[in-house]
Amino acid sequence: MGVAQPVHAISVAQPDSVRPFRYISRVSVLLGYARVSTAEQNADLQTDELTSAGCYAVFVDHASGVLDRRPELEKVLELLRPGDTLVVWRLDRLGRSLRHLIDTVTALGDRGVGFCSLRESALEADRGSGAGRPQVV
Predict the structure, then answer these.
(1) What are phi and psi for residue 71, nearest 5 degrees?
(2) Beta strand 124-125 with 85-88: parallel, antiparallel or unpaired?
(3) Which one is catalytic: 17, 25, 37, 64?
(4) What is the mean pLDDT of each run of 10 residues along the chain (137 residues)?
(5) End-to-end CA distance of the chain
């Protein structure tokens, strides 16, 4: 029997245009928003469904929909990045009025953020294009 010869590593030169891997993007997330009208109401049904739908985090406001200031909505809108999706339990949880709802969803689409309502599943913004336009799914 012969003696085994050592295996030599082969070095391959890389062109100057090849750079080492670096992280340049982040994972898109689903962020949920729930609202109950009074402090006595319980948001568990909404938060449970939003969590089951895959939301990474759920933001809950205890305020009337007609109030201008909803701090948790402001937080979630601030956190959303292009490619993310805002998920609500029902459309009326997001908008104070139809005009406010349309303006909010349009602004999300302009930022490249998707939108989805769990109860009105026929209305879902196109996450791929970030157009924010409702479409039948």
Answers:
(1) -60, -35
(2) unpaired
(3) 37
(4) 49 52 70 88 93 96 74 95 96 88 95 94 49 38
(5) 69
115 and 125 in contact (C-beta within 8 Å)?
yes
Per CATH, domain 30-135 is 3.40.50.1390: yes
Q: Tell me the CA distances in angstroms from 133 to 1, 83, 100, 105, one per residue in order.
A: 74, 14, 15, 8
129 classed as catalytic = no
Q: What is the pLDDT of residue 68?
A: 65
φ, ψ of residue 99 to 5 degrees: the values are: -60, -45
Model pTM score: 0.69
Q: What is the DSSP string of 84-132?
A: -EEEESSGGGT-SSHHHHHHHHHHHHHTT-EEEESSSTT-EE-TTTT--
Give the C-alpha separation, 80 to 20, whole Å.
29
pLDDT of residue 39: 73
